[in-house]
Structures are given as structure tokens and as C-alpha cells.
């Protein structure tokens, strides 16, 4: 027997079932075909109806379902909430909430539940719960959260700056590393135009690059300068990526990853300037520098081109280095090249070097292993030692000359003493002899010997500079005396034309004599078949006098003229090539100057020198 209470309950349940069945038949599809699971509870929480989606979701058959009560479907910890909403629905309110349910296989599934009260005859008779499976949505949400978190960690801890801008160029987001690199906090630049960060000189380039990204929708990578908050700048490399909306194909924003490359730039610059310095060093080296690989020339500097050529650079490239070395030295040179290739450096060694035109010169060659265009190669230095050899030769000669000079001085002394004695005795003899004609001749010849000896002495001993007032005419006469015999022997006549008598100059007479002797000797040497030398003295101005040495010799060819006066430049077999240089030097020390004119009829040397008018020096 059922109690009256139970009778009421079962009556309500029957009412509900009738109501539901009636509604269901009227709206079959909505119920049966619904994607969402639908379950209908009576007010006691007993299931009275479920749709196929429910059976599928919770894995209970219809028959099993109607045996179930609400609490069987939820975990204990959710029951309070579930009852709360169920209760509210039984009072006519539609409720929606997220909750976990338990399937027949005791699997938990995430659902979004909507409770809708079911009324019949204005009375709530049951609750219809529509269950939406939100497992996937939840999964997606948590995945989105995970990705967001991942991006947050990434952007906040990455050392590069991550910056996003809208298509107008306004900054949307900037990662915290911005403060470290540029000194700006995110708040200070968000909302500003990105050009705020650009170095004025790089703005155009950056705008162009951005334009490319916007129009071609492609990534771009470039480096320029960014201005820091303190006004200084840093070199950055920026990679810009447009973020495009899949559906509309519009750009949503541009993401830039910005890296501080100042240090790299500095290192690059340093490397570059070192390379340039090295290149300058090689290019302007006074020695010929060749870079070769397996004897073949890869590079030659300007000095090398001049020394071995002159020829065009291309004509050197790929030629064998041995082409420029005398065949006698080839075996030795090959051995040395091999040694350099093995990583050894070789010291300077003398070689006969052959130029492009086949002429040769004395050289010294050294080799060092090196790298050229990332390959191992040989760095070869060639030095022209012709001048060095000449200097050494001259040094040896001048050593000899000094000794000869000293000897000359000694001899002059030695000769002078007996000469004085001879002179004395000659005077004695003169007193006893009647015919004195010969004696006068002997006397004058003796005086001449004395004069030459004293000049020899002066020239032999280099002395300190001694400026004194000297009569120019007598200075020239002295020199003429000294050189006359030599001139006459060569069939040369020396004439003096003086337009200004008694002119004096302030000078070191020994040095000036040396100068004049040099000029006269050169003139004599230029006239092997004889001729004449005219020494002209002319007042040039109030302060200056001109002295010309004019010869009738063979002259100096035009192309040689410009080299006259270079140390050691000589056209003579036994010449020193020092005479003109030293003479010029001496005249310049006297505040004067020397000029040379020459043609095939002879040479004119002009010396301009200040006169002593009581004012100068
Ligand atoms: P060196 O006499 O030892 O050769 P110099 O310096 O005195 O050295 O002269 C250099 C060169 O100048 C000579 O070798 C010669 O060719 C040329 N030279 C000098 N003076 C004359 C001259 N009067 N006539 C022709 N050539 C001259
Ligand atoms: Mg000379």
C-alpha cells in the first residue's frame, strides 16, 4: 500500500510524464535530434525522460536512465550546487551553470547545464536540463591560457625587444627589455609613433622597409640606429613580421623583434678599420709586397708594380713568382717557398730580381706564411737594395777618401818643411849668383807650390764653419790658381770676368772654395776635348751677387737635368754624385741659391749669394 503522500507524488510524476510525452510528440525533432543531451527530472530528482544525445553522452540507456536519481549523476562535492540550482528551477527560474557529471563508466565530463522548469496547469511539475558538452571548449580555453602564459613568459624574459605596432605605426606593446636597451619604460612609449625611436638619419630607410612589409606582407630584416631615452644611440637589427587576419587578409599588427647589435657593429667596425689599416700598410709599404699561393701571384702592391714593372696589375696576377727571380736562384727560391708553405718564415736573402722588361737589380726577398681570402698563402717582401749597396760602396770609398785626405794633409806638411828650407837656401844662393833671372822663376814656382799645398791642407781637413768677410775676386783667384794646372792639362782656359771690383761677402771661405772647385771640376770633366770656362761675377741687387760658371762642354741632357743634385746621382764611371748636392747645401747655408741651365753647347751654373754691405749677417 502506498501512503497518501506517495500517491500525490506518483500523480505528479504521471502528470509530468503525460505532459512530456504530449510535448515530445508535438516536438519530436527538437527533443530527439537535439545535439545537446536533454534529461527531464521530476521534482524529486528522478529521471523521467532522456533524449538519445543523453544516452550517448552519459552512456546510460533510456531504461537505465529512468531508474536513476539526480545525485547519481554528479560528484559528491558538486551536489550542494546542483541541488541549489535544481531547487531554484523547481520554483520556476531558468538556471545556467557549469558542472562536472559522471558517466556510467565513471568518467568525468565538463558540461554547461541549463535548467528549465516544466509547468503543467500553472504548476511546476519537473525540470528539464539541457547539457552542453564543454570538454573541448574548456580544453581550448586552457590551451589558450597556456599559450598566453607561454607568450607572456617569452616576451617578458627575452633579451631582444618585442614591439608591436598597428598599421598606422602606433606602438601597441613593448616588452620589458626595452627599458634595459633603450631606457624607456613600456608606459612611456606605448601609444606613441614608432618613429620616436628612430635615428634621424635612418628614418627614411626604416620607413621604406616598413612600407615593404605593409605592401608585400612579407617579413623583413634590416639594421639601423635607435635613439635611446638619454639621446645616445644603439645599433639594432630588426625583424618585422606582419600579423594578418586569416579571413579578411588585413594586417592586424606588425610584430618587430629588435636586437641590440651595437657590440657586434663595433667589432665589425674595428675589424674593418684593422683591415683598412693593414691594407694601407701593405699598399704604402716602401717594399714590394706580393701575396702568392703555390708560387702564383694573387696580389701585388703599388710599390711592387713600380719596382717590377711598371706594368698593369692584371699582368702580374697568376704569374709565377719565379718569373721575377734569376734562373740561377730558382732552386733555392723553390725550397724557400716550400718552407713558407710549411708554415715557416724566411729571413731576407739576396736575389737577382728580373723586371718585366728583362732588366735586373739587386734585391732581398723575405717570406711569411699568411692567409689571403681565407686561404693559406705566402706573403713575400721584395726590397731593392741597389741604393743600399751603392751607399755601402760609397761609405767604403769615403772611408778611403778620409784616409787619403789625412795622408794628403800629412804629405803637405812634410813637403812644406823641406820647401821652407829650400827657399831659405835659394835666397842664400841668390845673393852669390849674378844672373838672377832663373831665380825669379824658381821663386815664383816655389810660391805656387806653397799655395797649392796650403789649399790642399784646407781641403783635407774638415773644419768648423768660420764666417769672415772675404773679397770675392781673391777667393775666385785662389780657386783658379788651384785648378789651373789641371785645366791647362785638359786644354781648358779659365777666364774671370768681374764686373764689380772689391765686392766682399760674409762666408766660410774654405767651404765656398770647395763649392767653386766642384763646379770647375765638373766643367772640366764635361769637356774632355778642351774648351773654356768663364767665371762671371755680377752684382745682382743691393744685397746680392751672382757668380756664373759657364763652360763649353757637352751639356746635360734634358731628362737627366732634373735629377742633378740628387745624392749619388752621377753619369760618370768614377763619380760620387755628391758634388752638386754638397755645393747646393753649402750655398743654402750661406742664404744663397744655385740654378743650372744646360744645352748641348754647354752648361751654366748660377750661384746667387748675399753680399756684405755692412747690413747683412
Ligand atoms: P759627380 O761629378 O761625381 O758625377 P756631381 O754631383 O758633381 O757628381 O755631378 C752630378 C752629375 O751632374 C754629373 O755626373 C754630370 O752628369 C752632371 N754635371 C754636373 N756638372 C756638369 C757640367 N758642367 N756639364 C755637364 N754635366 C754636368
Ligand atoms: Mg762632380
UniProtKB/TrEMBL annotation:
<feature type="domain" description="Histidine kinase">
    <location>
        <begin position="410"/>
        <end position="613"/>
    </location>
</feature>
<dbReference type="InterPro" id="IPR035965">
    <property type="entry name" value="PAS-like_dom_sf"/>
</dbReference>
<keyword id="KW-0418">Kinase</keyword>
<dbReference type="GO" id="GO:0030435">
    <property type="term" value="P:sporulation resulting in formation of a cellular spore"/>
</dbReference>
<dbReference type="InterPro" id="IPR003661">
    <property type="entry name" value="HisK_dim/P_dom"/>
</dbReference>
<keyword id="KW-0902">Two-component regulatory system</keyword>
<dbReference type="InterPro" id="IPR005467">
    <property type="entry name" value="His_kinase_dom"/>
</dbReference>
<dbReference type="InterPro" id="IPR000014">
    <property type="entry name" value="PAS"/>
</dbReference>
<dbReference type="GO" id="GO:0005524">
    <property type="term" value="F:ATP binding"/>
</dbReference>
<dbReference type="InterPro" id="IPR036890">
    <property type="entry name" value="HATPase_C_sf"/>
</dbReference>
<keyword id="KW-0808">Transferase</keyword>
<dbReference type="Pfam" id="PF00512">
    <property type="entry name" value="HisKA"/>
</dbReference>
<dbReference type="InterPro" id="IPR004358">
    <property type="entry name" value="Sig_transdc_His_kin-like_C"/>
</dbReference>
<dbReference type="GO" id="GO:0000155">
    <property type="term" value="F:phosphorelay sensor kinase activity"/>
</dbReference>
<protein>
    <recommendedName>
        <fullName>histidine kinase</fullName>
        <ecNumber>2.7.13.3</ecNumber>
    </recommendedName>
</protein>
<keyword id="KW-0749">Sporulation</keyword>
<feature type="domain" description="PAS">
    <location>
        <begin position="147"/>
        <end position="220"/>
    </location>
</feature>
<keyword id="KW-0067">ATP-binding</keyword>
<keyword id="KW-0547">Nucleotide-binding</keyword>
<feature type="domain" description="PAC">
    <location>
        <begin position="220"/>
        <end position="273"/>
    </location>
</feature>
<dbReference type="InterPro" id="IPR001610">
    <property type="entry name" value="PAC"/>
</dbReference>
<dbReference type="InterPro" id="IPR003594">
    <property type="entry name" value="HATPase_dom"/>
</dbReference>
<keyword id="KW-0597">Phosphoprotein</keyword>
<dbReference type="InterPro" id="IPR036097">
    <property type="entry name" value="HisK_dim/P_sf"/>
</dbReference>
<dbReference type="InterPro" id="IPR000700">
    <property type="entry name" value="PAS-assoc_C"/>
</dbReference>
<dbReference type="Pfam" id="PF13426">
    <property type="entry name" value="PAS_9"/>
</dbReference>
<dbReference type="Pfam" id="PF02518">
    <property type="entry name" value="HATPase_c"/>
</dbReference>
<feature type="domain" description="PAS">
    <location>
        <begin position="274"/>
        <end position="344"/>
    </location>
</feature>
